[in-house]
Structures are given as structure tokens and as C-alpha cells.
Write a structure and sequence with these properties.
Elements (H helix, E strand, L loop, with lengths): L1 E4 L5 H4 L1 H4 L2 E4 L2 H10 L5 E4 L5 H12 L6 E6 L4 H10 L3 E4 L3 H18 L12 E6 L7 H14 L4 E5 L7 H4 L20 H5 L3 E3 L4 E4 L13 H14 L2 E5 L6 H9 L2 E6 L3 H16 L7 E6 L9 H8 L5 E3 L4 H8 L3 H4 L4 H15 L21
Parallel strand pairs: 1-2, 1-3, 3-4, 4-5, 6-10, 6-11, 7-9, 7-10, 11-12, 12-13
Antiparallel strand pairs: 8-9
This protein binds adenosine-5'-triphosphate and magnesium ion.
Magnesium ion binds next to helix 7.
Length: 388
């Protein structure tokens, strides 16, 4: 969809030749709202009477979270000062308002660029970082254990990593890292529509021993209902622009927040365990993901507590879900012990078989998939300080 911000009557008709059908709006807040409502909007054209400062402010507030949206500025007269300001703010082009062929060309170039930025399943590619969502439709299978340790390992490897706790009512990421956050995902609500990297930094709590950043779930479970899926989408996109990896921990059901995360994720880590309800739920989750068009090649299935002898075998799981298991994580008492100490296992016991399996997920199925060398993590003392 193309949005035209213009206050002149008949503006839609005037530019119809170059823009086709447009949504005509008269103010920046209306444009913000329209962009929030339509995640597939690809172009905003701003008319010649809109003040350059107002137009620039809009572009600056949108470009971090929606880099795929093209902005074109129309002016009655082109001058160097205006062009300079507009391009610095993030406009793709500045065009004379009476130059219809130039506007048509600019629209085509902008759409081409947007298409290049678009992800392979229609979702918009993250500008820099990769979003990895750890999910299972059943509780207690190890989502928080895996997401916390995966994120810690990536951070220890020197990659800028943020762990977002989307278990918005009962999240326990901060407690499992012994952190006392002063902000949470809920604080993104007030910045919705204009969240940028500086705003994001205010939401983050730093885990000094690993270098990991986290964005905690709210401490008040009732706040979850006040966080819309759009806020989650914006938060994850802005995080992806600021970090190498965004790891998302989730609640045990397909909430609107989880669906929003799946939509912008490059990879889903789905957890199975050797019990019939978990396998049934995983099968249903895979079918749901198929139904919403999530590509199969962007899923990794991990079998947690893979060695417990309970009658169900890993091959039974593979047969039931019709998909291979990428990595098996053994059961070990070291896991709850590390949670109780509030120190991720990959940090305190990197040679533990559970840590080795988690590193395999991170290195073989996350880092290698997205390119870049897989290096040994920096050895970081539990009390080291991170230089930023
Ligand atoms: N491989 C493992 N070996 C032993 N215990 C494990 C293992 N993985 C997880 N656990 C333990 O299982 C419990 C549940 O794990 P975790 O909290 O990670 O699950 P979850 O899927 O996040 O649960 P919820 O759905 O409630 O958020 C924890 O006590 C954790 O220590
Ligand atoms: Mg959990």
C-alpha cells in the first residue's frame, strides 16, 4: 500500500499517474497509525506543503523499526539545503512535485529496494540481527533453559545478543540470570510507533558475567494484556537492528505475541520431549506453523531430556511429527542446579554434556546457518566487566 501525506484537496488524483491508488492522510500521527496497522505498507510519499521538519521527524522515527518502507519527498522547488536535510533524515528521493515521470521512476526504484529488503516468506527481513524464537506449545519442556543458555553462549562468543522474555505473564528469564530489571517489554508500549535504538537501550538489563542483554517480562502479570502484537513486532525489529542476535523466550501457547515473534523470526527452535502430550503439542504446533505459512526450512527441532527412559524413543518422536530432530539435549541435574544458582550452565560448566548440546544448537544451527565464522567463545570470568 502507498500512503500519501498531503493536505491539498485532489492530491490523490494529481499523483495517481505515478502512485496509483493511495491512502491519503493529513498528519504524521495518522501516517504512524496507518503504518502500524499495515505491516506491508511499502511507500510513503509526502506532499510539497508538508513542512520539511515535520516530514523529517516522521522518517527518522520510522526508519529504524521499518527500514523496508520507502519515503519520497515532493517539493515545489528543489534546492540543495532541502535535499541535504531530506536525504540525511532517511528519504530515499526528493522529487519536484510537477515532475510526474521523475516521480514514477522514484516510486519504481523505491519498490525495487523494498523488494530486495523483503524476507523470503513475505515477512520483512531483519536489517541486521537475526531473530530466533524458542517455542513449545507445552509448559516445562525447557524453553527458558534453552533460550537463556543459547543467548548466553552467543554473548560469550562476542556476538551482540539480546534475550527477550515474551512469556509476558510468567516470564522467568531475569530470575534465572539473577537479574533485577527496572524495565520490561511493557515499557515499549509508551514508545510504540517511534521506538528507536536509544529507546530500546532503556528497556535493556545487562548481564555482566556474559555480556548478554535481556528485555524482561513485566513483573505484574496483568500488564501482558496491555502489550499489543504490534508493540512486540516493533520491539523485535528494532532489537534486530541493534544486535547480532535476538533470542526470544516464549510462553507455552500460541499467543498473539508468539505469532508476532514467529512472523519476524529467521529461525524457530521448537522443543520436544519424550512424552506423548509434548509430542502431540509439537505436531499441532508444526501444523499451525504450516497453516500460517512459516517456512519448514526455518525450523530446528530439539529433543530435550533426550536420554530419559520412559518408553517413548526419539525415533518414535521423529515418526510422530514427521520431521527430523536436529539436536538432542540430555537430562541432567546440573540444569536445575544451575537455574537455582542463577548462573547459566554454559557459563559455569561449559563442558557439561547439556552445555555441549546447547553450543551445538547455537553454532551449527544458528550461527553457521546465518554465515560468519564459528569461533570459540571468549573465556570470560564470572566477575569480568564488559567494555562497551
Ligand atoms: N535437560 C534438562 N535436564 C534436566 N532438567 C531440565 C532440563 N531442561 C530443563 N530442565 C528443568 O525443567 C524445568 C522446566 O524448564 P524450563 O523452565 O526451561 O521450561 P519452560 O519450557 O520454559 O517452562 P514454562 O513453559 O513453564 O516456561 C526447570 O526446572 C529446568 O531446570
Ligand atoms: Mg519458561
Amino acid at each position: 500500500m502507498t500512503i500519501l501525506w498531503d493536505n491539498e484537496p485532489g492530491a490523490s488524483e494529481r499523483y495517481h499517474f505515478a502512485l496509483g491508488d493511495v491512502l491519503l492522510l493529513g498528519s504524521a500521527p495518522l501516517v504512524h497509525r496507518a503504518l502500524d496497522d499495515d505491516q506491508h505498507a511499502d511507500l510513503v510519499v509526502i506532499g510539497p506543503l508538508v513542512h520539511i521538519d515535520e516530514a523529517s521527524m516522521l522518517v527518522e522515527s520510522v526508519r529504524a523499526s521499518r527500514p523496508e518502507v520507502g519515503f519520497i519527498l515532493l517539493r515545489h522547488r528543489l534546492d540543495v539545503t532541502t535535499m541535504g536535510q531530506a536525504l540525511r533524515s532517511g528519504f530515499r528521493e526528493v522529487i519536484a512535485s510537477d515532475d510526474a515521470p521523475a516521480l514514477s521512476d522514484a516510486v519504481r526504484r523505491s519498490r525495487d529496494l523494498t523488494a530486495k529488503l523483503a524476507g523470503h516468506h513475505g515477512a520483512v527481513a531483519t536489517p541486521q540481527g537475526r531473530i530466533v524464537t524458542v517455542f513449545s506449545a507445552k509448559g516445562g519442556v525447557g524453553k527458558t533453559t534453552l533460550s537463556t543458555n543459547l543467548a548466553t553462549h552467543l554473548a560469550l562468543s562476542g556476538l551482540r545478543t539480546v534475550l527477550v522474555d515474551l512469556d509476558l505473564s510468567f516470564g522467568d528469564v531475569s530470575i534465572s540470570l539473577q537479574l533485577l530489571p527496572t524495565s520490561s517489554v511493557h515499557d515499549a508500549v509508551g514508545m510504540h510507533g517511534h521506538l528507536d535504538s536509544e529507546g530500546l537501550a532503556q528497556l535493556v538489563t545487562h548481564h555482566e558475567p556474559s555480556g548478554l542483554d535481556i528485555i524482561a517480562a513485566p513483573t505484574d502479570p496483568s500488564l501482558a494484556d496491555r502489550i499489543s502484537a504490534h508493540v512486540v513486532t516493533e520491539l523485535l525489529r528494532v532489537a534486530a537492528a541493534s544486535y547480532d542476535f535476538v533470542i526470544v523466550d516464549t510462553p507455552p501457547s500460541f499467543t498473539e505475541h508468539v505469532l508476532a515473534a514467529c512472523d519476524v523470526s529467521s529461525l524457530l527452535v521448537l522443543i520436544a520431549t519424550l512424552d506423548i502430550p509434548a509430542v502431540k503439542n509439537l505436531k499441532l504446533a508444526l501444523e499451525t506453523l504450516d497453516a500460517i505459512g512459516s517456512p519448514r526450512d526455518s525450523r530446528v527441532i530439539v529433543l530435550n531430556r533426550a536420554d530419559v527412559k520412559v518408553g517413548l524413543r526419539p525415533e518414535d518422536v521423529v515418526q510422530a511429527i514427521g520431521a527430523p530432530i536436529a539436536v538432542s539435549v540430555p537430562a541432567s541435574n546440573t540444569v536445575p542446579a544451575s537455574v537455582n544458582r542463577g548462573v547459566p550452565l554454559v557459563l559455569e560448566s561449559p563442558r557439561d554434556p547439556v552445555s555441549v548440546a546447547i553450543r551445538e544448537i547455537a553454532d551449527t544451527h544458528i550461527r553457521a546457518r546465518f554465515g560468519g565464522p564459528v569461533e570459540e567463545p571468549q573465556r570470560r570470568s564470572l566477575f569480568s566487566r564488559r567494555s562497551r
